[in-house]
Amino acid sequence: MRVLTLGGDGFCGWPTALELSERGHDVIIVDNFARRNADVELEVSSLTPIAPLGKRLAAWRELTGRQIGFRRLNVAEDFEKLVELLVEFRPHAVVHFAEQRAAPYSMKSAWHKRYTVTNNLNATHNLLAAIVESGVDAQIVHLGTMGVYGYGAAGVKIPEGYLQVKIAAQDGTEVEQEILFPVNPGSVYHMTKTQDQLLFAFYNKNDEVRVTDLHQGIVWGTQTTQTRRDERLMNRFDYDGDYGTVLNRFLMQAAIGYPLSVHGTGGQTRAFINIEDTVRCVALAIENPPARGERVRIFNQMTETHRVIALAEIVARLTGAKIDLLENPRKEASENDLYVENRQLLDLGLDPITLEDGLLREVTEIAEKYAHRCERDKIPCRSLWTRRPPEAPADTFLSRLPEPAAVAAVDLADAVQVDLGDAVDLDGEPARTALTTHDPS
Predict the structure, then answer these.
(1) Does 193 participate in catalysis according to the annotation?
(2) Which residue among 5, 48, 124, 145 is the active-site one?
(3) Is 105 a catalytic residue?
(4) Does the pLDDT value for residue 269 go beyond 60?
(5) What is the strand order of the sheet 139-145 is part of?
(6) Which of 53, 251, 331, 438 is the most buried (most CB within 10 A)?
(7) Are 146 and 244 contained in the same domain?
(8) The pTM of the whole model exceeds 0.70
(9) Residue 385 domain flag
């Protein structure tokens, strides 16, 4: 098959492109290096040294004789170029990783929230509109997240996408209907993924675009069968407070003697999947496409659930690391249960990789090997989910004037730039300070 991999230079995209190429698919990577640019912005690099994409692709060709193509474009902005590429390449499948993927990054500031919404929603909608515009019958395989459901389902096992409900009709009878399982996003990033679901549902209904939406758990591990072959193929290993995933962060922290950062009580339950299973699930979805006219297919792409504190205790037993309970920057329950249905991928042949000491040791050994590249001040999570209310303004001379008098005093000072010299206000503070702090903008 011909497969277009959007975001193919990233943490999940790169090993997926290699897996698909090794399976004999004709692969083209599309990327604008937004993830590498985020490293520059955050002033932190992958713990593992990742080669430039050109060197990665050359190494893959040298080692396997297989060619992976590359096109540089911004899926969220370069709509016409995307349409042209679809018409030229005519892919059977498009793997959609081209979204900002980190919840903490999406909550750093108003700018990061707006960027995440603009980038993620435009990328998804541009892809859907481009498939319709091009006339190419390509299925979309999208990497979503289990986080769209939140982390408290009141003891209900989360189904794979759809919930059977009964609605009271006007004539007193009950109407049965399947709806998307209710969402409860916990960050701006997760919110964009819930919007992706609605975009997919509309284009699937209106234009019969074929979509498989993979609601993925938190990824752990860094290497796959292909990336282990040569250091030039090495996958990235994020450990910082914005992009690092929880188990990888624990293993890296243990490797450098840094206490394991558990936020809150650690009673939060999360779904997990190994990076090797991620790439295999994408391949299974591509090789078992939905039929035209079939509704959006949703798979829960996870293999096990664990409480965060339980993971920390496993790593502590394995490495001797200490556990540090920290204030939780997120707005979430201190504890939750999580039950998830994941039958469909198992039925397609997924043989899950679960947490084992051997695999944890491999990740720890990678972390130890590249520990010298770690910047310890980048480890803490500094993105806050809620802003503290601003402090009350200082009680100044102008604040005690009646409003018209205060406005007039400030306007006068701005107009004539009065130099009050050593004059003081009623508090004994320099009067210059009270007047010149006014910002006319």
Answers:
(1) yes
(2) 145
(3) no
(4) yes
(5) 69-72, 26-31, 2-6, 93-96, 139-145, 211-216, 297-301
(6) 251
(7) yes
(8) yes
(9) no
Domain that holds residue 402: 398-436
Q: Are residues 298 and 265 in the same domain?
A: yes
Q: Which of 193, 269, 303, 396 does the annotation list as catalytic?
A: 193
Q: Kindly state whether residue 299 falls inside one of the protein's structural domains.
A: yes
Q: Which of 105, 149, 151, 189 is catalytic?
A: 189
Catalytic residue status for 145: yes
| Residue 246 banded pLDDT, cuts 50, 70, 90 | very high
Contact 281, 345 (CB under 8 A): yes
Residue 27 and residue 156 share a domain: yes
How confident is the prediction for the chain on average, in pLDDT? 89
Instruction: Tell the residue number behind the tokens 């999406």, with chain if given.
Output: 106
Confidence category of residue 361, pLDDT binned at 50, 70, 90 = confident
- Does residue 214 contact residue 142 with C-beta atoms inside 8 Å? yes
The pLDDT score that the predictor gives to residue 151 is: 76
Pair (29, 115) in one structural domain:
yes
pLDDT in tens, 222-236: 999 999 999 999 999
388 in any annotated domain = no
- Does 421 share its domain with 371? no
Place of tokens 């955050």: 42
**DSSP-derived 3-state class of residue 183:** coil
Asked if residue 262 is part of any domain, the answer here is yes
Residues 299 and 346 sit within 8 Å (Cβ to Cβ): no
Q: Tell me how many domains the chain contains.
A: 2
